[in-house]
Predict the 3D structure of the following.
Amino acid sequence: MTQSVASRTIEHGAVVGASLQRRGGSRANVARAWRIVRKIPLVPLAIIGVFVVFAVFAPLLAPYDPTRIALPQKLIPPLLFEGGNPAYLLGTDSLGRDVLSRLIWGARVSLSVSAAVVLLSSAVGLVIGVAAGYIGGRTDSFLMRFTDSSLAFPGILIALLFAISLGPGVWTVILALSVLITLQIGLVVLAEATLGFLGAGVPPPTPSWGSLVSDGRNFVDTAWWIAFFPGLSIGLLVLCVNYLGDWLRDTLDPRLRRTRKPGEVTSL
């Protein structure tokens, strides 16, 4: 009888101990997951997500046709300023086109061009790297010297010459930037906007953020909103993408993980 009670007591203690151990393990897993989530840059991800939604659902979100000209409604200021019209939240440009609609459609053009550039340049870089490593010898030396020589020239200058020589167009911009860019998405967006601003990007009337800034540069004193909102979008997207890239590098690079101080958080 005494042995039976003792054995049941031992079994009950083992069950309780295992249950506490499982609870402790689950709490440790929750705490570990919370530490990871706490470091995710939520604000940059949210801003990038908004621009991606604009790009994907532009036909549904844009209140007007971005190329629609309405001269009687030209140069209407944004809604919150004197003379604003509720029908045009961000105002209109010199031809009466809705700035918000052109901004949304410009996100589609700029982001689609940037995504195509990243994919194409990644494929080209992969082929060059595999060829150099597999063949070796003079082929490796030639490809590496060619890559080094391309780094000696300003990238935007080469892209500009390439785009002008082929003529304006979406595929021209993609090919011109693919010659230079690898996985630097923020730099791709900025370079595409630069080509659009200089008139060597996507031809009008198709809106892109760079061309929108170019359209408003002659109206900075009288209609600042034409260039301000696309310029703000470019700056926000480049900043958020670069911050997210830095976070990924800090998170995935084991050398940086070893040098990071205990408890250091890189979230925003």
User: Anything to note?
Assistant: Residues 2-38 form the longest helix (37 residues).
